[in-house]
């Protein structure tokens, strides 16, 4: 079918894409959101059932509509976020097309062509908001191919059932590792290994404080000043299950092993530990494969930007992914603030 014109095509219908949609709509811009998923909720649809947000609902909201407080009054889980995002896109009647996976964005005269399962669009601007869930990161470790047990990444973890009574090596020093360790240590023999000693925040500090810190850091960086404060969005928030695990004494991390053996892992000092499972809670990378034809990535795999606008392709904006596209823009509360600036900038140029 022939290519359709649009002022703006947003790629990705997770929280970042919805926040962009909210402000583009308010700015009166003609746009469409293409999302690869069958259903609303972005990556939150795929998270493990016990995941808890690191901020309370009041501090996890997109623009315009507060996230309801969960019935138990605690930190929201992933299903709660999916329900909120589902309601959000319906309430604002955002123009979503699903499933529509974008294979490529390419230059096409004065427009960008967006090729997807649902057809091609010719857009004056493209907003890429495809998140990171789709690119799990596992560091290379010598011997990993010879391991006879099971290896999986956070993205493939769906709860503790398959791990009963098994010896599980949990790798990673962030919130995912700590929350999964808290849960698995109740049914499995767990060992926790981290590259650096993990940082557990005091009980009264949650994602709000980390978000404020991310914002102050971003401002300082823009002003050429030194980064203020210590801590960051990777620090471990003491949500209830993590507090309980700490009080049980299981939040004790070993240094990272240096190689994997067929039956377990080995450290540089010669010590070894057998295990049945290695669970890599080692994070994610931006899902930017659809932008490959534009050839914009630097050696770190990022696309250099001024705010959200790609330096080498001013018709392309990036939203979410990490602090480099806006302070805490890969969090629920941070996405809105970055999206507002993005929509203002695009509307001014149209
Ligand atoms: P996503 O939710 O991944 O949405 C992107 C959408 O784009 C998806 O629907 C995807 O299918 C689609 N897509 C991808 N590629 C294409 C393509 N080529 N074409 C079309 N569509 C495509 N943040 C918080 O604020 N609080 C928390 O407590 C918190 N906890 C987290 C815990 C974990 C374990 C993780 C991984 C993240 C957490 N985050 C948290 C961070 C962040 O809020 C999430 O990563 C969030 O899902 C990012 O939203 P997004 O819209 O950028 O990406």
From TrEMBL:
Keyword Lipid biosynthesis in the entry? The reply is no
Q: Which domain of life is it from?
A: Bacteria
MF terms in GO: flavin adenine dinucleotide binding; monooxygenase activity
User: Keyword annotations for this protein?
Assistant: Oxidoreductase
Matching NCBIfam families: ArsO_flavin_mono (NF040505)
List, alphabetically, the PANTHER family matched: FLAVIN-BINDING MONOOXYGENASE-LIKE PROTEIN (AFU_ORTHOLOGUE AFUA_4G09220) (PTHR43539), FLAVIN-CONTAINING MONOOXYGENASE (PTHR43539:SF78)
This chain belongs to which protein, by name? Predicted flavoprotein CzcO associated with the cation diffusion facilitator CzcD
Query: What is the source species?
Result: Nonomuraea maritima
Q: Lineage of this protein's species?
A: Bacteria, Bacillati, Actinomycetota, Actinomycetes, Streptosporangiales
